[in-house]
Design brief:
four-stranded mixed β-sheet; about 20% helix; five-stranded mixed β-sheet; alpha+beta; about 130 residues
Length: about 130
C-alpha cells in the first residue's frame, strides 16, 4: 500500500521546533537522530495510535531555505490537523499559546479554525462532520 509518510517542514532550529510541535500542538517526537553532516533527522507526528503522516523538521541550510521558513505555501493554509474533539484541542492549544487567526467556525464539513505554527505556517484544526 502507498501512503505519504513524511512531509518536510523547514525550520530555524531543531530544538525550538520540537518544543513547539510537542508542547504547544501535542505531537509526539518519533525520532531525533544525529547525522554525520551535523544535521539531525527529526520526525514528529500528531497521533501515536494511528499510521498517518509525520513531519520531518529540517533546519534551513542556506539563505534560500531560510527565506521559506514560515511561508512554505505562499500564505495559504498548507497543513490540516484533524481532531476527534475540536473543543478540547482548541482549548488546549489556546492555553499553550498557539496563535489562532480567527474564531472557530462550524461549517457543513465540520468545525474548523485557522492557526499558525511557531514560524507562521498556516494550519487548519478540523473536526470533520460525521458522515451522513
Amino acid at each position: 500500500m502507498r501512503r505519504i509518510a513524511l512531509v518536510t517542514l523547514v525550520v530555524d532550529d531543531y530544538d525550538e521546533a520540537i518544543r513547539h510541535y510537542t508542547q504547544a500542538l501535542g505531537f509526539r517526537l518519533v525520532e531525533d537522530t544525529p547525522r554525520p553532516d551535523g544535521s539531525r533527522w527529526v520526525v514528529v507526528a500528531p497521533d501515536a495510535g494511528r499510521d498517518g503522516s509525520g513531519l520531518l523538521l529540517a533546519r534551513a541550510k542556506d539563505d534560500a531555505q531560510r527565506g521559506r521558513v514560515g511561508d512554505q505555501t505562499g500564505g495559504r493554509v498548507g497543513f490540516f490537523l484533524h481532531t476527534d474533539d475540536f473543543a478540547r484541542d482548541h482549548e488546549r492549544m489556546r492555553a499553550a499559546g498557539v496563535t489562532f487567526l480567527e474564531e472557530p467556525r462550524h461549517e457543513p464539513y465540520g468545525s474548523v479554525v485557522v492557526f499558525q505554527d511557531l514560524y507562521g505556517n498556516r494550519w487548519d484544526l478540523l473536526e470533520p462532520a460525521p458522515a451522513p
